[in-house]
Amino acid sequence: MYYHDSAAALIKDGKIVAAAQEERFSRKKHDASYPKNAIAYCLKEAGIAPSDLAYVVFYEKPFLKFERILETYFAFAPSGLRSFLKSMPIWLKRKLWIKNEIRKNLGFEGKILFPDHHTSHAAAAFFPSPFRRAAILTLDGVGEWTTASYGVGKDNSLKTIRTIRFPHSLGLLYSAFTYYLGFKVNSGEYKVMGLAPYGTPLYKDVIYKHLVDVKSDGSFRLNLRYFNYCAGLTMTNRHFHNLFGAPPRKPESAFTQKHMDIAASVQAVTEEIVLAMAEHIRRETGAKNICLSGGVALNCVANGKLLKKKIFENIWIQPAAGDAGSALGAALYVWHQYLKNERPADDARDAMKGTYLGPSFTDEEIGAVLRDAGIVYTTAPRSDIPSITARLIHDQCVVGWFQGRMEWGPRALGGRSIIADARSPKMQKLVNLKIKFRESFRPFAPSVRYEDASAYFDIDRESPYMLLVAFVRENKIKNRPQNNAAVGFAKLDIERSEISAVTHVDYSARLHTVRKDTNPLYHEMLSVMKEKYNCPVVINTSFNVRGEPIVCTPQDALNCFLNTEMDYLVIGNHIVVKAENKNLAHTAHYHTKYELD
Hints:
five-stranded mixed beta sheet; nine-stranded mixed beta sheet; DHBP synthase; alpha/beta
């Protein structure tokens, strides 16, 4: 709240009832405001009023964070006066008085608790995991003072062993390169990850020599001479720019091969630091399992390398690993560690319910929205929806898929997804440019039936939350460029595999495995794809356009569908055909509200 990714979560007797980010309701990406709509939704889903709550928990300690801001300013003064003066009004007016804000907005008179930022991350990582004991690694930009921590979770308790403190931060190192490459900090980091395979890590040694000193245990220190985030309004300074021979790339300008090589370099350094940390943690804790959270844990390429390295036997990553997920972590921390409630008996599966923790809508509610908008649509029996959708995908149509409860976290997992044929070599560019309105280099993730995943990808376990990268099996690959014949974005023009649209230029894929018991309708559609069309894999990208949050309500889905070149919308049991509704220039911004009375 008041930083980015404001969210709310609600648990009852230790079980997750609901969770959602405020951005999904407000339609403001990374909304940092008080999460009134997300809170109201959680209460509605649970069927309770604020007075029924036992505790309210905030995910960090505001006064400790304010201490860090003041100490940082005095350490760098008079540099940073401008950024200091800009931040003070909101801190003095609101951020220091979170307890008062909660009481005023929620009308809650009970106990309000404040675990620290990385404890909330650690709790979000461990308590929903399937492990009774595990090492825990949290990595992000910065909380109050901590930027990274590791420890151990056992049964219903957490123990922190060691932390790294601000200003030394792996998340901020990656964000500095995000800024330098012309992307937006705190939202564009995954673009750097997607750009990296087009380049070669030629600048890795430069980063190690000048920017970050890494020890054998993975701990590190940044050379602050090259960074501006402690005192300024930007991430990097002239020393950083001189080091790489140019000012930061201007947003929307063309990419050079150098940009791609820089992205590859910081990605390689990040992976190596994560692996060094993991090896040290395994030696020190002896744990065979590890749980991860924090924004850096969304780096699915690094996660895939960690899995491949087999440092730990098992890995579990909180699907909402960023700050939004800490709303859930804070609640679970109070339930298990503060109140000392036991976790459920051993279960091979995690407690996240597939992350389908957001709102759902009945066919009657959806139909009313379509009729009010003057939409021409048809309705099919629920049992026919998978086969109808599979046929549309096989016929090279792009389909908006809106089913069941909305996902928790940044990934669409078959609840609010845009889906298309993974086999088409043209589909990546088409969906990027005509539907998502985003950079053509961006890769798409495959959704695949869990039972078919290892036939297509080099992986021996599930990846339900799209947080692991795996390479496409060699027998599925069609063409490998030899002797660096293709460089940069020219790699996009190569038909890389049987599922080319979800095969990145390095022959990897950000994998989403689908189980029948978690999402039966989506799994059935993939089953039809396999049985009728011999391919249980589809493109799965989030149901939104560039710059907007993933859709939440039927009206959001309709707005997105009508303002892009998607061909069909499969929404509940209703099917909307774009060709039958082209006369509707839909610009309304109606949203279902969950505001408190």
